[in-house]
Amino acid sequence: MKNLKKNSIILLLITIIVLICFLKDDFPNIINNLRNANPIWLMLALACFFIALGFEAKAYQEIIRGYEYDYTFKKSYRMLLITKFFNGITPFSSGGQPMQIYILNKDGIRLTKATNIIIQNFIIYQAALVVFGIFAILINHYLSIFTEITLLKQLVTLGFFMNTLVMVGLVIVSFSSKFNHFLIQKGISILNKLKIIKNKEEKQEKWREKVDDFHKGAEYLKRNKPLCIKAFLYNVIYLALTYVMPYFVILALTKTIPPEVTPLKTICASAYVLIMGSFVPIPGASGGIEFGYFKFFGNFIKGTLLRASLLIWRTISYYLPMVIGGILFNINIKRGDQECE
C-alpha cells in the first residue's frame, strides 16, 4: 500500500507538470472551449470508451470460459477497470497483469490457469495491436496523412517493432515446450551455482510441472480456434472504438469540424500515438503520449482546439478510468479485510 501511495503521488506530480507544459500558453481559451463543448458529443465520446472496454472484457470472458470457468461479464469488466489503475501508476503499464492474475486467483481460478489466461489474452491483444499498426502504416503510405514527421516515424517504427517482438516472444514461450524446459533448467542451474536458490532438482521438477500446465493451456487455446477468433475480434473492436474516440471529442469542441478530420484519419493518428507511447517508461506514458498527440493530431487541428481536445481525450481514456479503478480496488481491499475479520 505504501508503494501504491508513493506511485500515485509521483504520478500526480508528473501529470501536473505535463499538463502545465502543454496547456499553460492557452489556458483561458482552453477553459472557454471546455465550457462551450457540446455535451451530447462528449457523452458519445465517453460512451465510446466504456463500450470499448466492454468488448475488451468480453475477450477476457471468452478465454476464461475456454478454461471451463463460469466467469461473469461484470467480474471481467471490474477487473479491467482495476487494471487501468495499476497500469496507470506503473512504468510500461507493468502492474496491470500481475493484478489481473491476483484477481482471477482470488475469484477461484488456479494460479497456473490464471497466468495462462492473462498471457494468452495478451498474445491475442498484441496480435490485434500489430494488425492495427500495419493498417495505420499502410493507410499513411497510400494517403500520405503524415508528412514531416521523420523523428516520429522512427519512434512509431520502434514502438511497432517492440510490440511485434513481444507478441512473437510470447508465442514462443506459450507454444514451445522444449524451449521453455531448456530455459528453466539452465536458469535454475545458474541460480543454484550463484547460491541464490537451493535444492536444484526439486525446483527444476516443480517448474517443469508448471511449464507443462502452461503448455497444455496454450495447446488447448490453439486447438480452440473459434474462441481465439472471437477474442481477437473483440480486441479489434475495442481498439477501433478507442482509436476513433478523439473524433467525437473534436466534434464536441467545434461547431464545424475541419474537413481534414475524418474517422479514418483519427484511427490512424490514435494508433500511431499509442504505439509510440507503448515504450515510454513513465507511468501512463505521460509526456510521450501528449507529445505524440500534438504532433499527429496537429496535422488536422491547431491551437486551442488541439490542446482542449488533448485534455478531454486524456481525461476520458486515462485519468477517469484510473480513478474509477482505484476506487474499485480500495472497495475490494476493504471487503477482503471484512471477510478476514
Descriptive keywords:
341 residues; mainly alpha; 13 helices; 0% strand
Helix and strand run:
HHHHHHHHHHHHH
Rg, Å, rounded: 22 Å
What is the number of helices? Answer: 13
Query: Can you summarize the main beta sheet?
Result: none
Please state roughly what percent of the residues sit in beta strands, choosing from under 5%, 5-15%, 15-25%, 25-35%, 35-45% or over 45%: under 5%
Oligomer: single chain
Share in helix: over 70%
Distance between the termini: 19 Å
Mean pLDDT: 81
- Please, how many domains? 1
Give the overall shape: globular
**Low-confidence runs:** none
Structural class: mainly alpha
Give a count of the beta strands, DSSP E runs of length 2 or more: 0
Question: What does this entry look like structurally?
Answer:
With about 350 residues, this protein is mainly alpha-helical. It has helices spanning about 1-25, 25-35, 40-65, 75-90, 95-105, 110-145, 150-175, 175-195, 200-225, 225-255, 265-275, 290-295, 305-340. The chain is globular. It starts with a helix and ends with a helix. About 40% of the residues are buried. The mean pLDDT is about 80.
